[in-house]
Every structure is written in C-alpha cells, then in structure tokens.
Amino acid sequence: MTVMIKKPTTENGLRKIVEEMSGVDLGTCYQCKKCTSGCPVARLTKSVPSEIIRRLHLGAGNELLDSDLIWMCLSCETCYSRCPMQINTAAVIDALRVLAVEKKAAVQQGNVPLMNSMFLKTVESFGRTYDLAMIMAYKLGTGSIMSDTEKFPAMLQKGKMALLPHTGADKQVVKRIFKKSQQSKGIVK
C-alpha cells in the first residue's frame, strides 16, 4: 500500500505536537509492528497503529487526523503492553483525537458520539458507569429501544449487568473532576 504524506506546515509537523501532548518519544519506535499484531481493531481499520506511528515519523501533517483508527481505538493499551520500547500508542491516539476535535478535522461516524456522551453522563451522575442507565439512554437516543432486549435476562443471570448502580464511588471527587474539565474547556454549568 502506498502512503502519501503531505509536506508538514510546520518544521516538525504533527509529530512534535503529538509527542508533547502524549509524553511519548516516537523516535524510539523501530517498527516491529507488535502493536498492530495485538490490536483488537487493527483488522477493522484502514490505518493500523504501526502505520500511524510511522507516518508521524515521516512528518505527516493534519491529514493524519482523518484516520479511522483515531475513533476506533479502544484505548485498551494492548499495543503498549506488547511494545518492546514501551511506546504508549494509546496516548498518541488520544492526542490525535484531541487535535482532530480541536481542528474539526474529522467527525465521529455513526452513534459513537451518542455512546461517548451517555457513558460520560452516567459516570458524572453515579460516580462510575452504570450500564443499565447508559444502555437505556443510548437506546432512547438511537430510537432502537427494543433491539437486543432478549439478551438482558441472560446478562442479569450471569452477573454481567446490575439492576441498581454500584455504590461506593466517591461522587464528589468525580463531580470535581468533571467541573475542572469543563472549566478548562471554557464550559461552565
């Protein structure tokens, strides 16, 4: 596959910005591709983790912000655990996500924004994720209220989902984190 890289607009291109944001030295990568071989979503994306790192090496510009891997990455850190050089590729992808949103370079496809929003709202409300509330809000948002309902009894029986939210989370700490995050973005409730 041929990869086209446009000449960066700055001397160091996107690489310097991503390294500063993620705290990762991309120069230590020697392209062993262990990150890609362990990535659970690599086979579903057009760009794989090792390619993203290599393109940053070669001075890729903002065209990298349109990569589908940015939005499909699970941040599971399998890439990080497999990397012999301990390169945190998930942190690099997170930095690229932030830049993509800031520059309005790529828009998340499908129901990804809705799922992210519902997840964060349940964490903010309950101090940790509450699966049942998150799924209900997501299904209301997508309009597919009755789809997959046949799976619910089995999930309850196997203990994969709880009817009531877990207790014990320090809700005040979580609310403080959300408030600080919103203030740093200029959002005030």
Write structural notes for this entry:
This protein is mostly helical and 189 residues long. The protein folds into 2 domains: 13-102, Fumarate Reductase Iron-sulfur Protein, Chain B, domain 2, CATH 1.10.1060; 112-184, no CATH class. Helices cover 50% and strands 0% of the residues. The chain is globular, with a radius of gyration of 19 Å. The model has no long low-confidence stretch (mean pLDDT 84).
N-C termini distance: 48 Å
The run of helices and strands is HHHHHHHHHH
Instruction: Report the β-strand fraction as a percent range.
Output: under 5%
Which CATH class of the largest domain applies here?
Mainly Alpha
**Helical residue percent band:** 40-55%
Report the total helices: 10
Question: Care to count the β-strands?
Answer: 0
State Rg.
19 Å
CATH superfamily of the largest domain: Alpha-helical ferredoxin
Query: What's the structural domain tally?
Result: 2
The low-confidence runs, each spanning 5 or more residues with pLDDT under 50, are none
Decide which structural class fits the backbone. Answer: mainly alpha
Shape estimate = globular
Mean pLDDT: 84
Major beta-sheet overview: none
Give a short overview:
The protein is mainly α and 189 residues long. The protein contains ten helices and no strands. It folds into two domains: 90 residues, Fumarate Reductase Iron-sulfur Protein, Chain B, domain 2; 73 residues, no CATH class.
